[in-house]
Amino acid sequence: MTPDLAKLRADVLLANREIAKRGLARFTFGNASGVDRKSGRIVIKPSGVAYEALNVDTLVVTDLDGKLVEGGLRPSSDLATHAALYRAFPEIGGVVHTHSRFATVFAQAGKEIPCLGTTHADHFHGPIPITASMHPDAIATEYEANTGAAIIARFANLDPGTMPAVLVAGHASFCWGATVRAALENASVLEEVARLAYYTITLNAGVMEISDALRDKHFLRKHGKERYYGQ
Hints:
Blueprint: H1 3-21, E1 30-36, E2 41-44, E3 60-63, E4 68-70, H2 79-88, E5 94-98, H3 101-109, H4 118-121, H5 136-140, H6 143-154, E6 165-167, E7 173-177, H7 180-203, H8 212-223
Antiparallel strand pairs: 1-2, 1-5, 2-3, 3-4, 5-7, 6-7
């Protein structure tokens, strides 16, 4: 095992444990993966294994097409979605899928998460998009791969770098980042802004999204070329 792959295994193990620890995934409702671009290897959680039972040896290694390379357990059933995202978005290094409560509420309601305040805009450059509902034929055959295709189609005119999250209609969320740790952070922030949006809309059903100027200011001062937030 190369040092890079060993480190990736450790990072993926930590991310899977953290999604449970942070309350983002109850039971086994979630998974995290990372990719080593040099070797073209994906490390992902095995299917249906409790988070507390995971260790570096139980993680599964595949190639970018989802073909098993290492591991004695079946990979996450969502592997084909993760692999599709890695192939489509070459700049990402980690993917986290959870059924966190408030983000999933919006996915089940078939609604984007609107950008209602600067907390949201500090991290996501606009409303969190939602995919189109999948055709029954796409659900019946190669469902997980077609879930990835639905996400990729939704991002035809979106930048996955400035919008590292999506809701899959009727399902839940997928987040990504330059690393699996960054993807985990994005999933954590996504759940927080979903919670804030839910309560804001409950309090004021007619609330409007913040202005483009305020949204852009908060996002770009943290993520833009001339960012000045932080050290």
